[in-house]
Structures are given as C-alpha cells and as structure tokens.
Amino acid sequence: MQPNSLTASQGAWLGLSGYHWLVIAAGWAGWGLDVYDAVLFNFVARNCIPALLHLPADSAATKAAVAYWNGAITSTLLICWALGGFACGWAADRIGRKRALFLTIAIYALGTGACAFVTNIGQLILCRALAALGIGGEWAIGASLVAEVVPENRRVQAGVIMQTGSPLGVILAGLVNYRITGVWLAGQPQSSWRYVFLAGLLPVVLAVCVRLFLRESERWQASRASARASGPRELFAPGMRRATWGGLFVAAVAILGWWGCNAFVPLFGSSLAAEAARAAGLGSSEAQALAASWQAHASTCFNLGGLIGTFAAWPLARSLGRRPMFVAYFLYSGLALFATFGLSLEPYTRLTLLFLVGAGVYGVFGAFTFYLPELFPLRVRATGAGFCYNTGRVLAAFGPYVVGSVAAAAGGSGAALTQVLLWLGAVPLLAAIVSWFVVVETRGRPLPA
What is the mean pLDDT of the chain? Predict the structure, then answer.
C-alpha cells in the first residue's frame, strides 16, 4: 500500500492511516498558522498604527485613526488574500498540491515577518499585501489535498479536524501578543509590536516539513494525464453554475461575519480595558498590561467558541444535511450577535460572551473544508473552492472597512464598536433565509472525480 493510499489500512485510528493523519496535520497546521499570521496585525494595531503615524497615545485622534486603519488595512488584506487565492488555486490544479502548499506557506510567513521592519503605513500595507497572497492560497490547497487523500467515509471528519486549526491559530496569536506586549516588553508599545510580527516567521518551519514529508495527491497525479484542459470559466458551465453561486454565497456571508467581528475583537478588548484603566486611575504600564490581558481574554473566548462550533459541523452535516446546517449556523450567529452586543452587560462579561458569537460566526467555517471540495470535480477542485472562498473575501472586504469607518466617526470608543457590531447581526439572519434557496445539498454524494 502506498503511503497516501485512498483507503485506510485495517486497524488504523478512526479509519485513517498514519499518512492520512500526516496530511491532515499538515493541512491543520498550515491553516492554523495561516490565520495566526493573518490576525497578528489586529492584535498590535493599537500600538503599531500610532507609532507609524507619529500620533500621541490615547488621544481622540489616535483612537479614530486606529479604528479607521484597522478596518482599512484588514479590507486591503482581504482583497489581496482573494487575489492570492485565485492564483494559487489555479496553480495547484496545474503544478500539484504539494508544491503549491509549500509556496503559499513560505510567502505568508516571509510577508508577515517583513512587517517588523516597516517605517510607515504604506510599507505596512505593502508587506501585509504580500503576506495576504500566500494566506489566501493556502486554504483551498490544503482542503483539496485532505479531501483527495482521506477515504470517502472520513472526509467530513477530516475536514472538521483541519478547520480546528483556525481558531487555535487565532488563540496562539493572542497568546504570543500577550507574552510579548503584556509581559516581556510591557511598557514599550512603540517597539513591542515589531517583535510580534517577527513571530510571524514561525510557519517557515512548517513549509520545510511540507516539502520534506508530504507526497503529491494520488488523485491529482492520476487525473493529470487523463483530464481535459479546464479553467475558471468552467465553474459557470450549466452543470456547475448553481454549485458555484451557492458556494460563493455561503462563503461571502461567513467571511463577512467573521472579519466584521474578528478584525475588531482585539481592539474591542483593549478599548474596554483602556476605559476601565482610566476609571481606576492606573498608570501607563499597568494600563498596557490590562489591555493585553483583556485582548487575550476576548480573543480566547471568541476562538474557543469557534472551536466548539467547528466540531458541531460534523454532527450537523450528518444529521441535517448541508443546506439545513448552514441555515442553523446563520440563525444562531445573528441571535448571538444581538444578545452579546445588544444586552446591558458589564464590559468583562461582554467580552466573555464572545464565546457565543464565535460558536456561530466562526464555527460555520468547519463546514467549508468538506463542503466546497464536494461541489467541484477534481480538475477544477482547488480552482472552484478557491474561487468561492476568495471571491467571498472580496465581497466581504467592505465589512471591516465599514465597521472601522463608522466606529472611527463615532470616536473609536468601546461603545461605538458595540453599536456597530450589534447591527452586524442582521447579515447572518437574512442569509439564513436566502441559504434555504441557494445552497446545493451534497450529503451522500461521493467526491466528484
């Protein structure tokens, strides 16, 4: 039996062989560190932006600038992320999953590490754009590789396991930021953010491991000689058009909800902490430590909720089917947003309830690692999954920009962010209705050849 055989060996754990688990681990780590690098900026924005704009700390102009640039740079990231996803998905269908995965991981790690050396906002945007090209490509390649290597009856489980790397990656980013800015370099906001970006080089180790230990997908190799030439336009052929639009719709709604929240979770936590520190009369060093602590708490709650919500995709997909699963996720997400940001709560309690928001807004992504590959035949699988996921990013890119702009216009305070995030809840509620009509049901179907 070949190491990446399409059938699991007898006695393997959960029906998966050792090589199956190696591929899942590579996809899991690649996606987790992908998101880890993607969100590091959102943790350091409160210190990074004033330093690059030469603004005084905690002034009204600084709060507004941080809210605005946090949203604008995140939206820029999403657009470049999408461009990278289109290009890398197309490349993976032509040069293979393994080589494309190695390139995407190396690109996003080096782009993030380069952010540590920028001296102005323009350079920061350029480095973030470079990182985004790799970040955008990794997901579709990893998801396609996992779906093609594991046995048919383990595809949903493998996809869910891979997706758990994402919330754990954000938790890791929060912990790294806390250790650097809140413990090791507390009281040095002008420079501590640079070391956080340097920690973004960590995925380079994973890229080397991918190059050394993974084998190419047997399905891709077998199809390379026999499959007819194809391209992105095939996604809109009569037999595939509905699947493409349905996949694009659910991806766009999910990404809009996630980035609309997650891009501002660290800023939301630090804003509430700054207000609490000011009310308690804390000094600057103590206030900085409190901000890092509340940032980590907010992010941990949101992402632990996302982790639980991700595992829910497994039983929901099997018992309800794909279409009712998306409807359930979107309904729950809207209600959780309205409750967390609409009820009268103590600041720390509100941050804790981000666990409920994450379970829906983040948890829904547990479905994409198996659902999007199910929609497309092998010859355009990475292209199709990448198109849906990354066009969704383009359509969702206005979300963080609008949230940041509106919050900046209202002064960039914690109260302003609370009001904006409250109304974000209307998006998934409306999407729950539309999903019933546009989502293509794939439960019980074999992976298209």
Answer: 88
